[in-house]
Amino acid sequence: MNIILASQSPRRKELLSLMGIPFEVIVKSVDESFPAEFDPITAVRFIAEKKARAFISEVTDELVITADTIVTIDDLILGKPTDDAHATDMLMRLSGRRHEVITAVALLHQGGITVFHEVTSVYFRSLSHAEIAYYIDRYQPFDKAGAYGIQEWIGAVAIEQIVGSYTNVVGLPTARLSIELKRYPLKLS
């Protein structure tokens, strides 16, 4: 069975490779908007499923894997920052507090879609304005939900604790994905 990872994320590509699963990357442009009344879990699941539905008429026996990750704090969804000021605002909001990272994964196979999600709690220590400015300038986190990558400098110096899946925070909950993939006849590479 051929596997398609429908994601441009280098982190998702790396994690799926670490799982020993051969795959190809095919990405479609998908509107990632969702109804304003959706809670964070419903929103992220909706987007992951929407990404999978973009392939529904084009695949037969392939397995398509899509994912979406959001950061949430105080019932506010933090997506990807648009500029330095937006990233600064996000990181100031996360500083010294706990937030949740939610990743939803959709698996499309033979017209059927399975969606699951993982929630990980992340505790940030208080960050100074200088630390936030350094991180944004050095790491340009504009492709990351919540304006940070746990695998980068900020993860090493600012995250005091995580409760849940580390790889979920990176962008793909690999332990849960490996369980879900047992339903399909896959060969490891």
UniProtKB/TrEMBL annotation:
Gene3D superfamilies hit by this protein = 3.90.950.10
Looking up SUPFAM superfamilies in the UniProt record yields: ITPase-like
Lineage top rank: taxon: Bacteria
Keywords, ordered alphabetically = Cytoplasm, Hydrolase, Nucleotide metabolism
Gene Ontology annotations of biological process type: nucleotide metabolic process
Q: Which PANTHER family match?
A: BIFUNCTIONAL DTTP/UTP PYROPHOSPHATASE/METHYLTRANSFERASE PROTEIN-RELATED, BIFUNCTIONAL DTTP_UTP PYROPHOSPHATASE_METHYLTRANSFERASE PROTEIN-RELATED
List, alphabetically, the NCBIfam families matched.
maf (TIGR00172)
Q: What is this protein called?
A: dTTP/UTP pyrophosphatase
Supply the source organism for this entry: Parapedobacter luteus
